[in-house]
Here is the input.
Amino acid sequence: MSEPQGRGFWRSEAATGLYLISPTALFAILLLAAPLATTLLYSVFTDGYLEIIPRFQLCNYIGECASLKLDAATGEYVQDQTYLGAWSDPVVMTLMWRSLYVSIFVTAATVIFAYPVAYFVSFNVEPSKKSLWLFLITIPFWTSYVIRVFMWNVMISRTGVINSTLMSLGIIDEPLRMAFTIQAMVVTLAHAYAPFAILPIYVALEKIDRSLLEAGQDLGETRFTTFLRVTLPLSMSGVIAAVLIVFIPTIGDYITPNLIGGGKIPMIANMIEVQMLQADNRALGSAVAVSAMLVVGAVSLLFLFLNRRYLKGNK
Amino acid sequence: MKLPILRSYAVLYLAFLYIPILILPIFAFNDSTTAAFPLKGFTTEWFGRVFSDPALGEALKNSLIVAGSTSVFATLLGILAARALTRYRFPGSASLSGLIMLPMVLPEMIMAMALLVVLLSIGVPLSLFTIILGDVLICTPFAVAILTSAFQSLDKSLEEAAQDLGEGPFSTFYLVILPLVMPGIISAMLICFTIAIDEFIIANFLGSGQKLLSTYIFGQLRFPKNVPNIMALGTILVCVSVLLLATAEFFRRRGLARTGAKDTGGFL
Here is the structure.
């Protein structure tokens, strides 16, 4: 503290902390922040043949755009194909809406079905058995995602486990049509993200002072009204975290639309892949990626805003 | 309060979570090329086919290289970040830790595509190395989360005692802190290994056609006659994952016991 400024800083605790974190931070800046910034930049540049031309334009987002091609004779760029910007292209918009409502569906289903489980583990399981329950809940999550999604496919396909069981029991005569439906995608995704929803809610429930519940009941509330007026509001911070942690990655899911949707119900991630790779339009691909992030961000912020009263007082 | 309905619900929910990985071994041993009830008979043929496929051997080797390197690098980066964030206060720590943890919530596809575009435009050839880079990015937040709780449960006075007894900062770290957080380190490495060996999106987009286990499986799914082989392979993979996780959990608990902290539950 009595050390002079300047040299003192480089030997201070703050400097040691910065040195220590710098490799990890640098890695994240180079491999995450820089690529995301590049995507943002590319989304306002012009598409060329196997290259991106640093000419500013907004038509990758809205309006009509033209790809450029280098003319070998003159050495100048000439107009090649035209395409519609992300927000003007009905195909992109259809996929964006589908991704959005599938993720909202998945998030609602995951969080609503997960809440009672988190509640049960926090309130009804003996403390010594809690970590066993949490461990059991997280195990399926750590096994191969591709295999889990594939197994759902095996179960719901026309000749799959569920149909063959129901038919051999004589419950149904015709196989149920479950494969390649949005409902099947919702179940698969809700299954995949279950622990992500349970854990934050569980943590929030664990923090609740149990004497508040007794106070509620002493003051004449029933168990149910105590839950509605004390437990639920106090656990909303966990519910909000769960919603965001399920919603944000779900909108970019790639494997489930491929395997469960059979490629017939593409989502926005499939569009990004096609534009970035097969169609070699990195400008449009970047604009679609940025748009997806903007949609996710806007919906998340709106959700946070609507629930702002539950977040007061928490960090 | 006790609610029997809640208990049955939780058990049912757990069953729902386990359905896919419990059905997997049933059909892996079933003597039929289609996965349907009633079962036809017991066979180990599919496991035999898995082990005799040379492409699978190559994929397994690649996956082990990727997952092994990822777990080492992600854990090293995790140790540095977790130590810095738990022990020191410095300007920008909140935003730096936010950036480091961001891959946990960001859609993987968007990260993979952004990274791919940058790698291609600066001319880095795609290889196992670029897959490792992507996987380290994905795994580091998990390593940081596990190691932060390991470092947090450390008693700062132990470190001060070592320094009072004449140890320098490095020998204090090596002699006192490292042994105490070692279970956390092992646990972080195992978790990163588990994530990296199953990781699909990074392996699919940041490699140049090298098959890893996940991309190999994804490729095989297009051929219905290979489905039983995939179930056999899946059974083996799930068993390995569960074994690794149980080991990770064992070390995590031992670490907490060693530092005398209260067990607060899972990895996340």
Observations:
- Residues 1-5 of chain A have pLDDT under 50 and may be disordered.
